[in-house]
């Protein structure tokens, strides 16, 4: 049955008009009270005290280092050390989540009301609400530690698709927020997300590797990885990661273009350092993808892509010797030193291609989120399907999948991963010739 249009008679209008005036007066009065503005952000699926969020968000963020992540020593950990890891994790995450909630609330209302961005906001509200009960007490027994680890696993799963969802939201809201504001927000948000996810995953990995029946979980602990401390590999070989990424990108390149350039590794391929393998895999996949695409599309597929690995020499005042004692406050609980004697402070990887370089018009925009060489129609198609370009169909670190394809997030996100622990990415382009990309990685230490 078709619905009838509602007609307001004069009596009902006389009743409603004073109510509207009262509503406007109430809105004007309450708008002067910062803590009484429920309309400043979307309704949350979980009730949470705004004062508590504000209090946590006012606390400074702890700058996360690789040293923090290995401070509890090699697994399997003793029960007391595992409790210490859980309490350290609990001391950091609520503050980080509250900062992200506050940042989302500070976006224009029309932006944060977008279904995709609102979904991310509610995810953070949900995660913070699951952690707050644990803040009232310390974790001192195995039952609490197991429950807390389950909460961490839920947190990781809840935020696994944060970046693709945000990408869609900001793509739909680009009429209401400037590109500069989007880049500024995303740069801060995604860098904070890297640390938040890493803190949670590290405790999960230490928990699993400290239980014999769970030690083979491939998500967090590689079988037979004697150099791994949770998600950190203290003897990571960049050359092995490069070959793994080369194989993956080559197959996709051949699928799309019918050819695959070769990759030559030179310099010091036996170099090792302490780092997060999934982070390095994401960065190298993105950089190789760009090099492959430029090489093939410029008709230079016979020219090899050259990758040079160079270990950073120890500076005269290197703290490496001191680090081995600083990072191991409970050395008696481990089977040996955390760092191998051959560990170095950092590595520089140069990726050189003959793909014609980056045009002067494009070069200033390569670090902007949502900048892409696709046209608007193609970007919208990518947004809906996530598969417009097979060469962009990469599986990113932390569950950021091919749905990011073509949205222009790869390069700035890769730089964010590199800079999180003191490294960086620099691009040198010779327009008409090719591009050199320098990836600098800092190893284990207080950065």
From TrEMBL:
Coiled coil: none annotated. Residues 277-445 form the Histidine kinase domain. The keyword Metal-binding does not apply. It is an enzyme of class 2 (transferase). Keywords: ATP-binding, Kinase, Mitochondrion, Nucleotide-binding, Phosphoprotein, Transferase. SUPFAM superfamilies: alpha-ketoacid dehydrogenase kinase, N-terminal domain, ATPase domain of HSP90 chaperone/DNA topoisomerase II/histidine kinase. Transmembrane segments: none annotated. It is found in: Mitochondrion matrix. GO terms for biological process: regulation of glucose metabolic process. One of its GO terms (cellular component) is mitochondrial matrix. GO terms for molecular function: ATP binding; pyruvate dehydrogenase (acetyl-transferring) kinase activity. Its EC number is 2.7.11.-. It comes from the Eukaryota. SMART domains: HATPase_c. Its main location: mitochondrion. Belongs to the PDK/BCKDK protein kinase family. This is Protein-serine/threonine kinase. It comes from Lepraria neglecta.
